[in-house]
Amino acid sequence: IIFLLCVTSALGADFYWENPAALCSTDSRFPKSVTNGKSSCVLWQEVDKKNHQFYISAKYFSDIDNPVEINRFSNAIKFSGEVPEVYSAVMKKDGTVYVAFLASHHEIAVYSIKPSGATEKISLPKQSKILTGARLYLGAGESLRLFASLSENESFSIVCAESSDGFHWTDFSSFLPSKNFTNPFVPFQIEYNGGDLVVFQAQLLTGSRISYQLYGTYTEDGGNSWSEPVILTDQNTIPVSDTHPYTNYQNQGAS
Questions:
Q1: Model confidence over 226-251: pLDDT tens digits?
Q2: By CB count within 10 A, which of 13, 35, 49, 181 is most buried?
Q3: Computed from CA positions of residues 146, 182, 198, 242, in that sequence, does the dihedral angle turn out positive or negative?
Q4: Is 64 exposed, middle or buried (0-12, 13-18, 19+ CB in 10 A)?
Q5: Could you tell me the pLDDT band of residue 16, with boundaries at 50, 70 and 90?
Q6: What is the average per-residue pLDDT within 76-105?
Q7: Measured between alpha carbons, how far is 195 from 216 in angstroms, rounded to an integer?
Q8: What is residue 3's three-state secondary structure?
């Protein structure tokens, strides 16, 4: 992995790229960077192809010239075929990083990383059904929300768990705004207007045509209640200047 750092000049008016610097010397994939505006942490998956497993490693930058290395802080994660991307990360204002990843088909693990490089594992209860796609987000008020996809009977649904401190988590439960949709997946969350906005994909059946659409829902009380999901990609979202038929778009074709 090559890490590129953008820094400002003394006048703060121009930007330039420093020379690339190698983060590690091993086979590594899927780099991600998280920051709180003062410190940053770069993470990646370190691959051991011979044993068909990989680990998650990191470098913590409180001081850009003296990063703290956190090598292989996760347990070994087995894989077959192509190396999958399995982790998600956020950083709180106090500099603590939280990393969530699929520890197995039925378990998601969460690790905390302190600026000193100290790590701690928080294991969430194992699920009886198959989990995929761990997605960790930092919401309004610095609460943590962990989404995952639950696979059952050739269909899937969104489940989530929440934590105010990163160490004590609720049980996984159905993400209520998506409960009445067909095969919802890939939730994405941002902080918006003092609350949390979540966008997810789901199937829409129009006559005999199946398409995937985007839906949005919003909470301003930390997830205790959510707005009724609204479709974000219907025909009304096409610009007036666009003369192409709505069904020409890739996600609107017949399945």
A1: 999 999 987 666 565 666 665 655 55
A2: 181
A3: positive
A4: exposed
A5: low
A6: 93
A7: 13
A8: strand
Collapsing DSSP to helix, strand or coil, 246 comes out as helix
The residues that bridge with 87 in the sheet, in sequence order, are 101
Q: Give the helix/strand (H/E) hosting 203.
A: strand 195-206
pLDDT digits (tens, 9 = 90+) for 153-197: 889 999 999 999 999 999 999 999 999 999 999 999 999 999 999
Tokens read off for 38: 């003062």
Residue 217 near residue 180, CB atoms below 8 Å:
no
What is the phi-psi region of residue 192: left when phi exceeds 0, alpha when psi lies from -120 to 50, beta otherwise? beta
Q: Distance (Å, rounded) from C-alpha 106 to C-alpha 125?
A: 9
> Quick check: 40 and 61 in contact, CB under 8 A?
yes
CA end-to-end span of the chain: 39
Please tell me the distance from the alpha carbon of residue 128 to that of residue 122, in angstroms, as a whole number: 19
Closest C-alpha to 195, from 223, 165, 232: 223
Please give the Cα distance from 195 to 117 (Å, whole number).
31
Residues 225 and 213: their CA atoms lie apart, in Å, by: 23
What's the mean pLDDT in 24-34? Answer: 90
d(CA 86, CA 170): 21
